[in-house]
Write a structure and sequence with these properties.
184 residues, alpha+beta, Peptide Deformylase, 5-stranded antiparallel sheet, 3 helices, binds zinc ion
Length: 184
């Protein structure tokens, strides 16, 4: 998820050459509409994937990233809302309550923000890289990023959370910009 705030500002820059920054897939890449598969074995590949996703998210910069956004339809998300990085493997949304409207963006729909109404509080559980069950929950930005990233694993982009009228306008604008750039 992209945020207008910059919660990672001030984070020391640590360059570890083993990590890789992946290109982020953008709308209308079909991988973004896929339902992601659960991770069956937490092995070295998954560990590497989590590291690379964090690196890609910080470089963007963003506050959350889901594996399909780098073209890998697996149930893995990483987040850092400014309180330190965490990841969830095979996450499940346990509970959502309340409602909160927040100007939300997505790294896969770059440079666009819309006020989107979602639950104000969310609690999600999943596995960490050691295979332990972990739970993350929170209000506002924390709840928002959990809902946004778990949506990605269902193939749902924030565009789907817009009202019909706003979505129609957004899609029209994006099409026009694409044409202006000479794309199809
Ligand atoms: Zn997103």
């Amino acid at each position: 998820m992209a945020s207008r705030r910059s919660p990672v500002a001030g984070r020391p820059l640590i360059f570890i050459p083993a990590m890789a920054i992946f290109p982020i897939r953008t709308y209308p890449d079909p991988v973004l509409r896929m339902v992601s598969n659960p991770v069956e074995h937490i092995d070295a590949d998954i560990r590497r994937l989590v590291e690379d996703m964090l690196e890609t998210m910080y470089a963007a910069p963003g506050v959350g990233l889901a594996a399909p956004q780098i073209g890998i339809p697996l149930q893995v998300v990483v987040c850092d809302i400014g309180e330190g990085p965490f990841h969830l493997i095979n996450p499940i949304m346990e509970a959502t309550t309340g409602s909160w409207t927040y100007e939300e963006g997505c790294l896969s729909v770059p440079d666009r923000y819309w006020p989107i109404k979602r639950s104000g509080h969310a609690r999600a559980c999943g596995l960490d890289l050691d295979g332990r069950e972990v739970t993350y929950e929170g209000d506002e930005l924390m709840g928002r990023v959990l809902q946004h990233e778990l949506d990605h694993l269902e193939g749902t982009l924030l565009l789907k959370r817009l009202t019909r009228r706003v979505r129609k306008e957004a899609l029209r604008e994006m099409r026009e910009e694409e044409l202006a750039r000479g794309g199809l």
